[in-house]
Write a structure and sequence with these properties.
By secondary structure, this protein is mostly helical. It has helices spanning 4-15, 22-46, 53-74, 97-104, 128-148, 156-165, 168-183, 190-195, 203-224, 226-237, 242-249, 257-279, and strands spanning 90-94, 112-115, 120-124. Helix 1 (4-15) packs antiparallel against helix 2. It is globular and about 65 Å long. The termini are far apart.
Length: 280
Amino acid sequence: MLFDGAIKFLHIAMEGFNQPDPLDFNLTIHQNTQKAQAIIRELKACLDPEKGPEFSDKMSVRLEEEYKNITSELGFTRYDNFWLWDNRAKVYVYGTASEFASACSAPAWAAGKAVYGKREISTYEGSQEFLDKTMRHELGHLIFRDYIGFKGEVPLWLDEGVAQWLDKDKRANAGVAVRALFSGKRLYSLDELVKIEVKTLARLRAQEFYAQAVSLTGYMIEKNGSDNFRKLCSQLRDGKDMNTALAFTYPQTIRSICELEKAWKKSLEVTNETSSVYSH
């Protein structure tokens, strides 16, 4: 996996080209390039290419691509030092689906599993579903939780919203579902959304919960920018409650959960009105 540390070291190496002193020029580029390469080598070792070189090679490339894409989309890439060399994540590839399910206590249908506190992702050899879908979702959870930590007040809708928003198909489907819920006046309030225990919901209502989570998360990132979203996450990481974090991040527009809900619903109203115009 291409860790944030590797990106950091490569950025520092690039800065070496601006060093006027020849010694500083060479040392900055060489030392930081070596550190980045060491992290990439660790990924290849974790993937155990002897057991499945083709799958491991594919996963190595995809993980690097997805890590860069996810951290960029969430605004995390350039600012904070997480997932450095001493705290790198590990990827485990089991030989078969049954070996994976047994070792990870995963359901038979699962294509992968992440253990956020340990920075681990597991899957099995040849799982195309993992490469195409599950990997990005679990990696999103892993990156988000590693950035935010586990001590702050992070509502489930935001945690799940981030991971599912990163899936473009789910993002698009959620948009359609939420507009329909809005038109039918069946949206959960944010107060309800925070208190919901998803596992107790019927399948349809659970799907509606996830759709709203994706829509809300997407509204904050797309409408107000990933840099502001990173600021919000930094506030939550530092132990601020959601209202305080919103007021700090969006002092002129979204100063509370109540204002977030109003602004989000207003955007849905505008979207529905626009769709109605084009449908006539």
